[in-house]
């Protein structure tokens, strides 16, 4: 199944009205918070904001509702905290002149539904993953003889289970003997070197047609950009539609091959419970001139038809966004 992002990802504001999620504003605010903490890792802001977009889409697809802005902000703070950037979250709150919330240290008993609902609200994961992690966390508490725990303990335990769960795809039955509990990252440079000599992929990376995005072992999603403007330049310009569409289909096939290999590498590197989801971001569609709406429609139809055929053969899922 293909999850296609609409032009407007909606969030609920404090006044109850729905508004489009302004990813650029959130990204800029987050980047400035990183800079105030003397951290010059702009890619991390992009990585986290994409996770928030995916959380908005998950809530819409699974629950049929728009996520509240406060709920999304809590997910953001949680991601920063578990990624080792808690000071950036505090900088965000101070810039908004908001109080830094104290963690709820009260120990309480959790039912499976309550634990799953809490994790779904506070982490950038879907309902199924929330239920799986809730069951695992409560099983650990029972094994340790603990009748309950605090909100923060449950959250940290769930994140630990997310990291340390065995990966069926990799055939593992236990975490590595000497695990690193620090957040790990895979940079775009790694992917460029990995695919440099791969026919059909290395040259597209060099031309800028394909661009893998960085990812971390905190809620990993393999993400890849397909740049239609670069593709149009290679095919003779946007006006040459007959030349562009065949090259587009070939580049989509290359994108799917690259995403599959990226996911395989991630599963071999990190002990994940299940393979990470995939997100293809098609860049350049929204930059088409207003007078080329027909071409934009043709391109989007061609993209979705080609991807649907690929997905149906493998029975898998893919998130698709247009930029």
Q: How would you characterize the overall build of this protein?
A:
There is one protein chain. The protein is of the alpha/beta class and 323 residues long. It has 3 domains: 2-95; 112-164; 185-322, no CATH class. It has 12 helices and 10 strands. The protein has helices at residues 23-36, 42-63, 69-82, 86-95, 112-122, 127-144, 151-164, 188-194, 202-207, 228-235, 241-269, 293-314; strands at residues 2-4, 10-12, 18-20, 67-68, 185-186, 210-212, 215-216, 221-227, 277-283, 318-322. Helix 12 (293-314) links the parallel strand 9 and strand 10. It is globular and about 65 Å long. The two termini are 20 Å apart. Mean pLDDT is 80; it is low at 166-181.
Task: Give a nutshell description of this structure.
The protein is an alpha/beta fold. The chain is built from twelve helices and ten strands.
Strand line-up of the largest beta sheet? 1-10-9-8-6
| Rg of Cα set | 21 Å
Helix content: 40-55%
Alpha-beta content class: alpha/beta
Ranges with pLDDT <50 over ≥5 residues? 166-181
- Please state roughly what percent of the residues sit in beta strands, choosing from under 5%, 5-15%, 15-25%, 25-35%, 35-45% or over 45%: 5-15%
Major β-sheet profile: 5 strands, mixed
The total strand number stands at 10
Mean pLDDT rating: 80
Helical stretch tally: 12
What is the string of helix and strand elements? EEEHHEHHHHHEHHEEEHHEHE
The tally of domains stands at 3
Shape, please?
globular
Instruction: Measure the end-to-end span.
Output: 20 Å
Can you give keywords for this protein?
single chain, 323 residues, alpha/beta, 3 domains, five-stranded mixed β-sheet, three-stranded mixed β-sheet, 11% strand, globular
């Amino acid at each position: 199944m293909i999850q296609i992002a609409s032009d407007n990802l909606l969030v609920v504001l404090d006044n109850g009205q729905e508004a489009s999620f302004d990813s650029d504003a959130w990204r800029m605010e987050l980047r400035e918070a990183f800079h105030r903490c003397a951290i010059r890792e702009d890619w991390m802001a992009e990585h986290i904001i994409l996770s928030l977009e995916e959380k908005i889409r998950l809530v819409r697809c699974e629950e049929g509702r728009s996520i509240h802005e406060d709920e999304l902000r809590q997910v953001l703070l949680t991601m920063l905290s578990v990624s080792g950037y808690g000071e950036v979250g505090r900088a965000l709150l101070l810039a908004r002149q908001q109080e830094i919330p104290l963690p709820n240290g009260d120990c309480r008993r959790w039912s499976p539904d309550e634990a799953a609902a809490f994790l779904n609200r506070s982490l950038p994961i879907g309902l199924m993953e929330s239920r799986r992690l809730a069951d695992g966390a409560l099983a650990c508490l029972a094994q340790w003889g603990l009748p309950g725990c605090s909100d923060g303990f449950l959250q940290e335990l769930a994140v630990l289970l997310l990291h340390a769960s065995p990966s069926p795809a990799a055939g593992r039955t236990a975490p590595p003997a000497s695990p690193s509990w620090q957040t790990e990252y895979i940079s775009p440079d790694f992917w460029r070197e990995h695919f440099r000599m791969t026919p059909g992929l290395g040259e597209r990376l060099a031309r800028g047609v394909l661009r893998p995005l960085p990812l971390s072992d905190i809620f990993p999603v393999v993400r890849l950009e397909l740049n239609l403007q670069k593709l149009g330049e290679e095919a003779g310009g946007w006006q040459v539609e007959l030349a562009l569409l065949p090259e587009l289909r070939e580049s989509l096939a290359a994108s799917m091959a690259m995403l599959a290999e990226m996911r395989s590498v991630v599963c071999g590197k990190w002990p994940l419970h299940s393979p990470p989801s995939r997100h293809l971001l098609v860049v350049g569609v929204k930059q088409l001139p207003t007078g080329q709406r027909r071409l934009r429609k043709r391109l989007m139809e061609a993209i979705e038809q080609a991807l649907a055929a690929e997905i149906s053969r493998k029975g898998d899922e893919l998130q698709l966004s247009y930029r």
